[in-house]
TrEMBL record:
Annotated ranges, domain SAM: 300-364
Keywords: Repeat, WD repeat
Domain U-box as annotated: residue spans: 387-419
Protein name: WD repeat, SAM and U-box domain-containing protein 1
GO BP, sorted A to Z: protein ubiquitination
An MF annotation (GO) of this entry: ubiquitin-protein transferase activity
InterPro entries (alphabetical): SAM, SAM/pointed_sf, Ubox_domain, WD-SAM-U-box, WD40/YVTN_repeat-like_dom_sf, WD40_PAC1, WD40_repeat_dom_sf, WD40_rpt
Superkingdom classification of source: Eukaryota
WD repeat ranges, renumbered to this chain: 50-91, 104-134, 146-176, 236-270
Species of the source: Etheostoma spectabile (orangethroat darter)
CDD domains: WD40
Membrane-spanning ranges: none
Length: 419
């Protein structure tokens, strides 16, 4: 059987991907951030969330050693983060500046591949962070990629529904298969390859109301199958919108599922945890995001601030904040200097996390009372002066002149008539 361990509700937009390492768990979202948790108790690390991307983050993956986290975004970059400090180790700009939709690290951490919306793949030497090779392999968006366990070949998938097997130099297409009618959304290798590389259809799995391409489904459920005989084992019903991500823990009997409802659910599969693991992974009502109070943050009492600290897993700071009489007004005025000199918080990472949480509170307060038409329909952030680049291709706009709808419609009509 399965049981829900906890629900993570920290993201402010769709959860696009989630990934386990041996000791950590990472999620990424359309809110431009990544969040990293301890996979034992799912407490958020002090330097989380990771902010650096300019647009939504589509994918994230850990290096085998667990010391690095890689992410890719619509901003046309693939970023390498340190899981020790939370700092950016490298920013890899995709050739052509097209939005990057997928990234994958080889098991030996020697190579990194990223796929973009323009159908190109970029192969990077991971230790040096240098571009090894790039090429256009499809006419449509690359949405899936995975390295073999031996790290000598990798698979790519696109919106066309095709799967392609490549060598490390991308000089030779080893195999190609038209796999799905409606496009590939994910692909992965089995942990062990017994002999050769042969692409053969073993089973076609169908869920209750939608085709199942992986564990995640558009019917808001997660279907788990026995991979040997294609028997449905469990159907997990918890998310309120489409399930967009799923990941198995390599060290614990856990599975994580992410959704467009902005949440991540952590499930225990059967009951194979030892006593220590069971004590650390107990069912809960779920971690809740900040800002439950209907009051403005500036009107919060010292008790409200203490409750907020507990909600954000910062209960160790409650006594310090109470001793310094930090209410809502004081909370909003905190700086790195006051945290260090007056509250005596020595950890740089912890100070940064507090300030990020306070900034989120400020944004929530601003957005809660403004007209809906002032908010971006995609990010739900207060609109500001736009970038002078295309949100689809990231290329510079030749002009910012707007053409009225009626004028454009007439121009299209004239063009159709002449052709």
């Amino acid at each position: 059987m399965t049981s829900l361990i906890c629900t993570l509700q920290d993201h402010r937009d769709d959860v696009n991907w989630c990934s386990f390492s041996g000791k950590l768990f990472a999620t990424c979202s359309g809110d431009k951030t990544l969040r990293i948790y301890n996979s034992c108790d799912f407490s958020e690390l002090p330097f989380s969330p990771l902010s650096g991307h300019g647009y939504g983050v589509h994918c994230c993956c850990f290096s085998t050693c667990g010391q690095f986290l890689v992410s890719c975004s619509t901003d046309a970059t693939t970023m390498v983060w340190s899981t020790v400090t939370g700092e950016i180790e490298a920013v890899l700009e995709h050739p052509g500046r097209s939005p990057v939709r997928i990234c994958a690290l080889s098991p030996d951490s020697a190579h990194l591949v990223s796929g973009a919306s323009d159908g190109t793949l970029a192969l990077w030497d991971f230790p040096s962070k240098k571009l090894h090779r790039t090429g256009a392999v499809s006419d449509t968006t690359m949405v899936a990629c995975s390295f073999s366990p031996c790290s000598q070949v990798f698979m790519s998938g696109s919106n066309y529904g095709d799967l392609r097997l490549w060598d490390l130099d991308m000089n030779q297409l080893l195999a190609e298969k038209n796999a799905h009618d409606l496009g590939v959304t994910c692909c992965t290798f089995a942990p062990n390859i017994l002999s050769g590389y042969k692409m053969q259809l073993l089973h076609t799995l169908t869920g209750q109301s939608a085709p199942v391409l992986s564990c995640a489904s558009v019917d808001k459920t997660v279907a788990l199958y026995d991979a040997n005989n294609a028997v449905l084992l469990y159907t997990l019903n918890q998310h309120e919108r489409y399930v967009t991500a799923c990941s198995f823990s390599p060290t614990l009997p856990l599975i994580a599922t992410g959704s467009m409802d902005k949440t991540v659910n952590i499930w225990r599969l059967e009951d194979r945890c030892n006593d220590h693991e069971q004590s650390a992974l107990t069912p809960s009502e779920g971690r809740t995001s900040a800002g439950r109070s209907k009051l403005l943050v500036s009107d919060w009492s010292e008790g409200d601030v203490s409750a907020w600290l507990v909600d954000e897993s910062l209960e160790g700071l409650v006594d310090k904040f109470r001793a310094n009489n930090i209410d809502g007004t004081e909370l909003l005025s905190l700086t790195k200097e006051t945290l260090a000199s007056e509250l005596h918080i020595e950890s740089v990472g912890l100070r940064s996390k507090i300030l990020r949480k306070v900034e989120e509170l400020k944004n929530d307060s601003v957005c809660s009372g403004i007209p809906d038409e002032f908010l971006c329909p995609i990010t739900r952030e207060l609109m500001k002066e736009p970038n002078r680049s295309s949100p689809m291709t990231n290329l510079p706009l030749l002009t910012t002149l707007l053409t009225p709808n009626h004028t454009l419609k007439m121009a299209i009509g004239r063009w159709k008539t002449s052709h």
